[in-house]
Predict the structure of Aminopyrimidine aminohydrolase.
Amino acid sequence: MFEEELKLPFMGKVLAENLPIWDECIEQDFVQKLKKGTLEKSKFKNYMIQDSVYLKNYARMFGRAIYNAQTMAEIRMFYSVLNFANDVETQARLDFLKQYDIDEKAIEAATPLPANQAYIDYMMKQAKEGTNRHILMAILPCMLSYAYIFDKINQDPEKGETYQAFIDDYVEDEVGSDAKTWIAFTEKMCADSSEAEKQELAQIFKEGSYCELAFWQMDY
Ligand SMILES: Cc1ncc(CO)c(N)n1
């Protein structure tokens, strides 16, 4: 889905390095069962709880990013990612968890599993110590990997119906086209980075992809 983006000087290289990690995400048992519709409801529920905790902390990053922003375009960029994460994703999780009487308070009280906590710590480190370029590298693997993964499983003939509504959030809400806008913006933001900084940024992005892989591998 990122054919054009793969041609970009900086983000093209970053994507090429990370697509194999996202393909590995697709191979995980959890994602395969989600695709086929055979994933146990209890596991999906536990994922939704962990992911709600994750998304709350993800949203906190944007406080820093918008504060740091130098341009209105930057603010719009961060706001559009936050809008999807908070208003679409978090809302979908809270709506789903209602049937188990799990509300916001229960989410606040939930303990993140180790891989979730590690991902949160990695994001917070970038928010606290990094520039907006660093923050972009920490927020993008999340959105871009989901756009890529869900586009692929949605087209798989082995797909079942059980979790289609969940898959649709990543396919129908045009996350794919938003993802391309976010990539183009990031390319511009990083265009005048030195080679050393580009390497550092690419490393942060890759760490994020490995956090994504570990998130799919958690024992729900
Ligand atoms: C862990 C994780 N990564 C990415 C996304 C997509 O926003 C999500 N909801 N959760």
Q: What stands out?
A: The chain is about 75% helix and 0% strand.
